[in-house]
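A further point concerns the way the authors explain their paired sequence and structure data. Showing the layout once, in full, would remove most of the difficulty. For illustration, here is how one protein appears when written out as sequence plus structure tokens:
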Amino acid sequence: AYQIDDMQTGLEAIREVMTEGYRPAVVRLHDPIEVELLFNAVTEPGKALMLFLAEGPKSITAATGAAVDEIVKKHGAQSLGVKPVESWLEHRNDISNELEETSAQMYSMGVCVDTCEISASWSQIGEIYKAVCSRMTEELDNLVAIGGHSSHSYINGTNIYFQFLFQVRGKGTVKEDYMHLIRIIMEETLKRGGSIAHHHGSGKYRTAWMPREHGSSY
């Protein structure tokens, strides 16, 4: 695990790991919001968190680990040891196992929470992340938090898995606010040539943007 200055710097470091040909089994980058909410603030305030894990024969894992360490430190990353990775491995499915119960509890407290993931090329993914976070903060005064992480990286790009929370304004307003948030993510992603879905599929609520992404192939 490493702390790194911000999401853009972390994305640049991961891009170099992937384009150099290394294939860690786990490559994750969490923004400061998720570090605070999900990792008990293991980094310095405002820093992003990177997690790496290699699998296979010892010679491969050793070479991968050494290369990752060299590359990310070149981008200013600081080692946090193995404990944050071990914690993630132990607790990574907690939210899925408790999602229905947790969502119901939060809604009863007047807060709605959900996720939405997209993907894009290395040259655009950081801009999408910044634009989405900026627009949500500007356009929704009942936004509680917007954060995200990159969890699946390739030679040509990566994904961002956004997580958002907003205060319920009143009866009948949840869908309106929810779709406002989704529209921001869709618009900023498509504006920069990204894909409106990644490994979880689109769901019904994103179908309206499919023709714009796929063009004549739709």
Notes: The beta strands are 2-4, 26-30, 48-53, 78-79, 111-121, 143-150, 157-167. The longest strand covers residues 111-121. The CA atoms of residues 54 and 62 lie 8 Å apart. The chain has a mean pLDDT of 94.
